[in-house]
Specification:
Layout (H helix, E strand, L loop, with lengths): L3 H11 L8 H14 L3 E5 L2 H11 L7 E5 L8 H5 L3 E5 L10 H13 L6 E5 L8 H10 L4 E4 L7 E2 L10 E5 L12 E5 L2 H11 L22 H11 L2 H19 L5 E3 L6 E2 L5 E5 L1 H4 L3 H10 L5 E2 L15 E2 L2 H9 E4 L7 H16 L3
Parallel strand pairs: 2-3, 2-4, 3-13, 4-5, 5-7
Antiparallel strand pairs: 1-8, 6-10, 7-8, 9-11, 11-14, 12-14
Helix pairs in contact: 1-8, 2-8, 3-7, 5-6, 9-13
The protein binds pyridoxal-5'-phosphate.
Pyridoxal-5'-phosphate (PLP) binds next to helix 3.
């Protein structure tokens, strides 16, 4: 937190706006649009809720298919199941670690030939890095399939000087505690289409018709963001660029100290944009390094340094085992060899140094 969040929260208390509605919610949406270039925004209780609303807004129903990046967190795909639809997972490429545009285009063409196009595509921007949006959006437009961008991990990133999440029909962001800025929990749904965003607000507040009594013609959700948390969000928006700079600095420090180790490769930064380096990720070539990712992870754990494997692809998850996957070898390889280092915005030089020394020790002890 910076200093502004508490002032906004106090204001919510003083004015007694302790509700999932209020001036901070409105201002948070407006300021979020100003910062990202999004046209319209609805503040909601989580990124997952925003994805669920997006699918509802696009009419995804039982039996429909939704194409979805496989290398991501389960929250990307869970709402597909909430809607009774079926995910079809699409592999990544090595350039950005995100959805492979060629693979998506081929998959859409194949589905078009059998007259069974998906109802939507969910594209993830992983670890602070944008996917290659233009060819993906072009393929979606060619087949008239709406694009949902899951930019939960990519606030502060750029794609050709624009914000990932603002290109597709609907974009979503997360303010969970682990994200680059946080409201403790929260999310945002954005779209160029004001009617979609108005409908998102309606569905997020129990789908209450405009009538003096309580009248409902549709099933709604309780998905709106609290005015107190929106106050935190307003303060956090003011420090987003500082947070991005801090995360990128972590990455630089790690890369300078560890990048020379044989078999270690840091996550590339694709040339179409800026990565926030939300997490510093690297891959290990066990043949060249002399030990695999798990060995490093376990060695660091003995020194109380927590690192994590890269996301386990969704097509490998037991809960999604029954669904189709188009490709998957790249995501599997990144999972097998990928490691995320401690990456908090508040890491001190001393703490970074401790991780680096421990990592160097792992290498030394092998040789
Ligand atoms: C965090 C995250 C979500 C979910 O956001 P919540 O606010 O935690 O519900 C969705 N997708 C990705 C890629 C995420 O990292």
């Amino acid at each position: 937190m910076s200093e502004r969040e508490l002032e906004f929260v106090k204001e919510a208390f003083v004015t007694n706006w302790i509700a999932p509605v209020g001036p901070h919610v409105d201002a948070f949406e407006k300021e979020f649009c100003q910062l990202t270039g999004a046209h319209h925004a609805a503040a909601v209780s989580s990124g997952t809720a925003a994805i669920h609303l997006a699918l509802r807004l696009l009419g995804v129903e039982t039996g429909d298919e939704v194409f979805c990046s496989t290398l991501t967190f389960a929250a990307t795909a869970n709402p597909i199941i909430y809607q009774g639809a079926k995910p079809v997972f699409i592999d990544s490429d090595y350039t950005s670690w995100n959805m492979n545009p060629d693979l998506l285009r081929e998959a859409l063409a194949a589905r078009a030939r059998i007259g069974k196009l998906p109802k939507a595509v969910i594209l993830v921007h992983l670890y602070g890095q944008s996917a290659d949006i233009e060819p993906i959006l072009a393929a979606c437009n060619e087949y008239n399939v709406p694009l949902i961008e899951d930019a939960a991990e990519a606030l502060g990133a750029t794609y050709k000087n624009q914000t990932p999440g603002t290109f597709g029909h609907i974009g979503i962001y997360s303010f969970n505690g682990n994200k680059i800025i946080t409201t403790s929990g929260g999310g945002m749904l954005v779209s160029e289409n004001p009617e979609l965003v108005a409908k998102a607000r309606f569905l997020a507040t129990q789908a209450r018709d405009s009538a003096p009594h309580y009248q409902h013609s549709e099933i709604g959700f309780n998905y709106r963001l609290s005015n107190v948390l929106a106050g935190i969000g307003r303060g956090q928006l003011q420090v987003l660029s500082e947070r991005v700079a801090a995360r990128r600095r972590n990455f630089e420090v790690y890369q300078q100290a560890l990048g020379h180790l044989p078999g270690i490769e840091f996550m590339p930064e694709a040339d179409f944009g800026t990565c926030t380096r939300w997490l510093t990720c690297l891959t290990v070539d066990p043949q060249i390094f002399g030990a695999d990712r798990e060995h490093i992870r376990l060695q660091l754990a003995t020194k109380h340094i927590e690192t994590r494997p890269v996301w386990k692809p969704l097509h490998l998850q037991p809960v999604f085992a029954e669904y189709e996957s188009i490709g998957g070898a790249v995501a599997e390889d990144l999972f097998a060899r990928g490691l995320c280092l401690p990456s908090g915005s508040n890491l001190t030089d001393e703490e970074l140094g401790r991780v680096i020394d421990a990592f160097l020790d792992v290498y030394k002890n092998l040789h």
